[in-house]
Amino acid sequence: MKVSLDKVVSIDYTLTNLEGTVIDSSEGHGPLSYLHGHGNIIPGLERELEEKVVGDQLKVTVEPKDGYGEKSDELVFSIPKENFDVEDGGIEIGMQFHAHTHHGVQVLTVVGVEGEEVVVDANHPLAGVTLVFDVKVVELRDATEEELAHGHVHGEEYEDDEEYEHHGCGCGCEGDDCDCDCDDENCDCGCDC
User: Fold this and answer.
1) With contact defined as beta carbons under 8 Å apart, do 35 and 151 qualify?
2) What SS3 state is found at 60?
3) In terms of residue numbers, what domain contains 21?
4) How far is residue 182's CA from residue 151's CA, in Å, rounded to a whole number?
5) Span of 25-29, 101-105, 127-131 with lowest mean pLDDT
6) Could you give the C-alpha distances from 7 to 62, 64, 69, 91, 145, in angstroms and in order?
7) Distances 103 to 26, 72, 76 between C-alpha atoms, Å
8) Which of 9-18, 124-133, 179-188 is least confident?
């Protein structure tokens, strides 16, 4: 079996930048499993895994355009401080907040505080970074009908979990009853279920 559309692919990986600094790794966490061809991982890595088989190892360099994109100055903007629900301590540079947008949940990083305005950066933290993946394909299988319908992998740890269909959907429901209408093909709540 080869990595191709609608296959569940499990990989061990280490992600570094060009300087060799480790950014992320599956070591100690187990393999990362994803549904191939459904946009579950960055395009540059997914493309390089196409046609690979269990046991294949590769080193993949992914430019920003095929990763998390280039940094955009348009995604750095000010928000009135009153819009933040912050407990004691106030707002500090480096804090991150989740914003619910029509594209799903977006992480905003505080990059400045100027009087009553908070300057945030909505770029992905790895935007503009060339990524280097050391990857090994460790397992391949056909996706289930449910995984194909939902567009993502369902792991064994969720088989008995009746609420799984809402976990990590990106609409902000955090496993509670999702109030979005995901049966609507035009739904833009960010829910992947």
Assistant:
1) yes
2) strand
3) 7-67+128-154
4) 12
5) 101-105
6) 22, 26, 26, 44, 11
7) 27, 17, 17
8) 179-188
What is the identity of the amino acid at 73?
Answer: D
Domain count along the chain: 2
- Strand, coil or helix: what is 50? coil
Q: Is there a single domain that holds both residue 101 and residue 24?
A: no
Tokens 């049966």, residue located: 183
Task: Judge whether 171 lies within some domain.
Answer: no
pLDDT at 90: 86
Residue 130 and residue 59 in contact, taking contact as beta carbons nearer than 8 Å = no
Pair 120, 75: CB distance under 8 Å: no
CA dist 157 and 148 (Å) reads 18
36 CB-near residues (< 8 Å, 6+ apart)? 3, 4, 5, 6, 7, 8, 9, 46, 49, 50
For residue 156, what pLDDT band results from cuts at 50, 70 and 90?
low
Instruction: Tell me which amino acid residue 179 is.
Output: D
Query: Which residue's structure tokens are 């100027």?
Result: 114
